């Protein structure tokens, strides 16, 4: 079709709309004039495929029979779909980078394939960092040594990793993996296979990977909130894919002192609003354990500290006062020396808002006094940041 991609997509959609209604449980995806037809049984597939072909031919499209793929593997939009697995076709990654536009194109291609390959935000961070800066698209860029190593890891992943088609008889599960701040998750299915029947069969079917945004929020974000955001994205995605929810969500949190207990997890869920909101209406199970599989053992369990550092009562210790001036940009902390009983001060000029200047004073206080102390501030913002930073 010699017209815009938008018009082509709209026109083909209008032709296939009656086919969707008549094809029963068949699923028909299309991008421009590439059409993928799926159905639970061979008879339903044949019926849906005939309806699709007839609708397109009646509209004047010419279909080349040799391009109709009736047997696996089916090639569609860069993917090679087998009866059980989904792998990438040979995808040429443009590794020669000379401009910001080249970086945009490279990162765009990698963002497209990462849900199937499990390319984590940590893997791609050296490439994403090349996007920083508001220059023109023609502005020069070059791969850093870290970015070159990242591309090598990506090439290895493209040749060795795969996703799977889902089994309609199995429920969906979700697990959180990785280490802070690069948490990620996996949507998967699990089939219990007795040892005597395994014969190379894998209990794990990877459906898709879920990632947090590389561009982190400017607000102070707790690990619990990162977990909540991952779960929110995963629940939204599984509804898109399958129209259902997970039967189990695995949150294998580690503590500095060992493994988290079920009672600790329940306390965490009760105390954190972000987790409460993201798990609203969830009727499945929450597990603190990982399924027994090498892919889960290879991934680092993220560690959470539940020990509270702040005291809710004043301490018998040094008291430090902080303040800042909008006009002079001065960032001040002052305290009474317990040895000399003289007032001391640390004054610095900090560009930015008074809140930022006072926050800088708080940072200097923590750097100056390693022992416990009382912190007095008149800024709600600073008090909130210190509280969340724990």
Molecular structure report:
Residues 1-81 form the Reverse transcriptase domain. One of its GO terms (molecular function) is RNA-directed DNA polymerase activity. Its EC number is 3.1.26.4. Belongs to the beta type-B retroviral polymerase family. HERV class-II K(HML-2) pol subfamily. This protein is an alpha+beta fold and 390 residues long. The chain contains twelve helices and 18 strands. The strands form five sheets. A five-stranded mixed beta sheet has the order 9-8-7-10-13. A four-stranded antiparallel beta sheet has the order 3-4-5-6. Strands 17-16-15-18 form a four-stranded mixed beta sheet.
Note the topology.
Blueprint lengths: L4 H18 L4 E5 L2 E5 L3 H17 L15 E3 L2 E3 L3 E4 L11 H18 L3 H8 L16 H16 L2 E2 L8 E5 L6 E7 L4 H4 L5 E8 L11 H20 L5 E3 L3 E2 L2 E2 L2 H10 L1 H6 L6 E3 L6 H5 L4 E2 L13 E7 L5 E7 L6 E7 L4 H15 L4 E4 L3 H10 L1
Parallel strand pairs: 7-10, 10-13, 11-14, 15-18
Antiparallel strand pairs: 1-2, 3-4, 4-5, 5-6, 7-8, 8-9, 11-12, 15-16, 16-17
Helix pairs in contact: 1-2, 4-5, 11-12
Pfam families: RNase_H, RVT_1, RVT_thumb
Keywords: Endonuclease, Hydrolase, Nuclease, Nucleotidyltransferase, RNA-directed DNA polymerase, Transferase
EC number: 3.1.26.4
């Amino acid at each position: 079709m010699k017209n815009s991609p938008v018009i082509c997509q709209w026109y083909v959609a209008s032709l296939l709309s009656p086919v969707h209604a008549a094809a029963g449980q068949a699923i028909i995806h299309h991008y421009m004039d590439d059409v993928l037809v799926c159905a639970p049984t061979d008879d339903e597939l044949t019926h849906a495929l005939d309806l699709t072909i007839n609708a397109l031919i009646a509209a004047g499209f010419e279909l080349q029979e040799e391009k109709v793929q009736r047997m696996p593997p089916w090639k569609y939009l860069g993917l090679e779909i087998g009866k059980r697995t989904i792998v990438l076709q040979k995808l040429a990654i443009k590794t020669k980078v000379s401009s910001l536009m080249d970086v945009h194109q490279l990162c765009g291609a990698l963002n497209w394939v990462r849900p199937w390959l499990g390319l984590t935000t940590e893997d791609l961070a050296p490439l994403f960092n090349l996007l920083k800066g508001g220059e023109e698209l023609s502005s020069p860029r070059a791969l850093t040594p870290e970015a070159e190593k990242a591309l090598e890891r990506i090439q290895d992943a493209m040749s060795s990793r795969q996703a799977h088609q889902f089994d309609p008889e199995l429920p969906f599960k979700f697990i959180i993996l990785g280490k802070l701040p690069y948490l990620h998750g996996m949507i998967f299915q699990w089939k219990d296979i007795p040892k005597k029947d395994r014969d190379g069969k894998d209990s794990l079917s990877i459906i898709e990977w879920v990632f947090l945004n590389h561009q982190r929020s400017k607000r102070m974000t707790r690990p619990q909130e990162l977990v909540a955001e991952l779960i929110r994205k995963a629940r939204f995605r599984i509804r898109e894919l399958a129209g259902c929810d997970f039967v189990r969500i695995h949150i294998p949190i580690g503590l500095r002192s060992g493994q988290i207990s079920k009672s600790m997890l329940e306390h965490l869920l009760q105390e954190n609003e972000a987790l409460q909101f993201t798990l609203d209406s969830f009727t499945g199970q929450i597990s603190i354990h990982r399924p027994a599989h090498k892919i889960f053992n290879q991934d680092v369990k993220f560690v959470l500290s539940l020990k509270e550092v702040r005291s809710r009562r004043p301490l018998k210790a040094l008291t430090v006062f902080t303040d800042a001036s909008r006009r002079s940009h001065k960032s001040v902390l002052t305290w009474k020396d317990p040895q000399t009983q003289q007032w001391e001060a640390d004054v610095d000029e900090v560009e930015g808002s008074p809140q930022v200047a006072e926050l800088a004073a708080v940072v200097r206080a923590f750097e100056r006094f390693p022992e416990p102390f009382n912190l007095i501030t008149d800024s709600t913002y600073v008090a909130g940041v210190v509280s969340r930073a724990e």
